[in-house]
What we know:
The protein is mainly alpha-helical. The chain is about 80% helix and about 0% strand.
Amino acid sequence: MTEQHQAIVATVVFLLTYAVIVSEKIHRMVAAFTGAAIVILAGIIPLEKAIHAIDFNTIGLLVGMMIIVGIARQTGFFEYLAIKAAKISRGEPIKILAALSLVTAVLSALLDNVTTVLLIVPVTFAIARQLKLSPIPFLITEILASNIGGTATLVGDPPNIMIGSATKLGFMDFVLNLTPAIVVIYVITVFIAQLIYKSQMSTQPELVSGIMKLDEQDEIKDPVLLRKCLLVLFLTIMGFVLHQYVHLESSVVALSGASLLLLITRQDPEHALQVVEWPVIFFFIGLFVVVGALEETGVIEKVAAWSLEMTGGNKVATGMLILWLSAVASSFVDNIPFVATMIPLIQDMGRLGGITDLNFLWWSLSMGACLGGNGTIIGASANVVVIGMAEKMGEKISFLGFMKVGFPLMLMSIVIATGYLLFWYFFHTITAMLVTLGIGVLLALLLKPASAMMLRETRKGL
């Protein structure tokens, strides 16, 4: 098979795999694994290179965090937080909506958004039923909050985990560069959501008093286990904060935290491994191999060259293209396979375009892919999880019903992200110029006496 034929086969397999994932006719893990098997069996990518294409840092980080959260889930701490937030809101539905959204956003940043919604949604249903209100406004706002909160950190959303692993950007890089914009986007999004759903938030005073009578302490099932989980979670988060400074991969931090928690809690390893979402892990593995085949055959390099031609190699124009393309695409397809494709593409764009500092492009991809997930119910894994849980509880959120709220708010967030990224780029550029100018002036001042002395000595010699 010629190189051209290999490239065509790799592209066809990728597109078919993508189409099957989007259609949801077959489980996405099966689709990704089948695509991986085809490109290996067809000789498109050798087995050794297929294994090399798998990002084990991403896999390790996901497994480690799943084990930690799975054990912590047994304590009832997350239910405690949700009920506490409802009581702090004085049982007022519109304030509860904001409070649960805040808990969702914060937990999504520190854990991950899929795990967070799995923990928050059941409590949300209980509170909504206590108030005799539809849970749908709460659920939709929590979906939006989970994707926004997850954008703020390295571990909050799978796309960020993948970007961090591929670029060596650390936990604090994401926090310092993305969190300011995410806070603004979150506040505006929840404020607008409150305006949209305000008319659906009226309830009876006696039902509100029922919420205030709930005792959040009853949700804590194992205080001793809780203390151990909080200690390990704190140490793990501190590990993420420091990992780039002590030269440890984020996966090492997560797996070390999981190992420590298993050790001090004496949890049954078999039970602990059952909480790992293995279909998600193997979905990632298959996907990495399929995208690796595109990279192996040179398809991604050609797409990168074409993209650079469109933007003329200008970094700002390229970043804006990535931001908006990522946002719109991630609204209609799962953002995980999209980001898996974009990472090597951006790396090739940097190499071909001679762009040494790609951070502007990485932040554009992160914000576009993560925030773009709010556009439709299939845009992000957290969305699909919440929709599935709602259907099991007898509540259906339609595609158009979600899109009417989510897509305009997503576009609003991308407009804010556009302004922020442009400010970020020019601020860093101007700062670099000022630092360079300052160094030049300082050197000139330091060298001025020496220059004057050399000039005097030269004149004496003449």
